[in-house]
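Forwarding these from the shared drive since the link keeps breaking.
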Amino acid sequence: MSTSPAPARPARFSLAVRDSSTMLRRNLLHARRYPSLTLNLLLTPIMLLLLFVYIFGDTMSAGIGGGDRSDYIAYIVPGLLLMTIGSTTIGTAVSVSNDMTEGIIARFRTMAIHRPSVLVGHVVGSVLQSVLSVVLVGAVGVAIGFRSTDATVLEWLAAFGLLVLFALALTWIAVGMGLSSPNAEAASNNAMPLILLPLLSSAFVPVDTMPGWFRPIAEYQPFTPAIETLRGLLLGTGIGHNGWLAAAWCLGLAVLGYFWSTSKFNSDQK
């Protein structure tokens, strides 16, 4: 009697997509059930935006050669959009650290799932949260007077692509920080440079107005070229060499964060 062949096993790629989708839903549900961390991190760029526009706006506008407060709004919003991404990814580091210390990762390791899907779920979920946070902060910017009338459709698409790529790069770095931290508090502290670096960049004032000894710190870091590129795209001004510098920083940080995270995750037996 002939026997029917055993059903073929699902392709490895299909399993990876299925398990990654499951982990993504898990992380999005956690973010929806416990929104306080995301909201607290989101409030930082919004408060800075309102503070610098309404308290220092006229003075800062004169400092950058603008005519009134609206000129400074146009200058500051691109930097705060990228700062929003840095703030959001701090929550990712905390979430990853919680998973590692609370034992759920050990449980996942005993299950027949695609191992990298745990990290992929965190990364994709964080990028989606970053994009949503950027939209909310951008809406506040528009409400107080930010306009991008000189940007073309292609420049808008390029700006969106830069934001997503920057979010992906910082998220992988944050995942590595979360995996390397002994607890959630340490993960939050270790990820603080992701929100402090924008304060030391061209987000609030041009680099050429800074003291000479401080200028290299602001110029040779990932946020400044990304901010200048986004500012040029949204305002329809020149980008210069900042475009390829921003792309190089994003790709370099993404690759570094990916290998750091996967190596730490695969070697950690907690």
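-- next protein --
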Amino acid sequence: MSKLSKQDKIEIYHLWHDYQIGLAELSQRYQVGRSNISYLLALIDRHGLAILDQPFTAYTSNFKEQALRRIIVEHEPARRVSIDLGLKSSGMLSNWLREYRKNGYNIVNKQRGRPPHDQKRTADQTGKSATQARERPLTPAELEAENRERIRKKIERLSRPADQEPQAAEIAQAVTQLRRELKVSVTFILDTINANPNLPHLSRSNRYYTLKKKDKERDNREIMAEIKAIYEEHKHRYGYRRITAELLGVAVY
């Protein structure tokens, strides 16, 4: 929507609201994608035309984390959260989510403007060191430690206000996401969680029961995706016994 002036946006809203001009015609007339037009209309409908006068906002880490929590933990649709928060672009939340996962489930606010010369030189040196470190492959011990830290951070993000522990379904879903992202076994993830006294625990049997219960509610889609992931990961060599064992997080000899 960066191509549109404030007056364009007001005209689009009035054409849609007062004259029932459809999205397709508005999109063609103003040469803007239908999804952007739809988002703009929903945004004005929710906050009024005053939202167009909102100045640039540098969102805090806490604001971003609360917004992402609504998507990751509370499973709200990203578009609804974005409109509710009055974000001017529908892609902002997607960018935050991508950076959040990329940075090991941490919010990182980028500093705007050009840094001072000395700071830039230090940053360049740090950047080179970081690049050199990335070029060196992690040892098995370093990789394991990094994975355990990412597991800990993700589960900690599930903690609720007023010291309420997250439900088993939320932890089970987080375990499934971690397994796909880190390419580690369910056993490794559960052992890491259950070995930490500060994290909410989840037994293997309770996870399997939760997946089965949620599976029935969602027409087997999620459990089938998990089964397929295990099947593909092991090059189609696992039968139903080994796949079941993997879902349960137990070893098969």
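The radius of gyration is 23 Å. Residues 99 and 107 are 8 Å apart (CA to CA).

- D.
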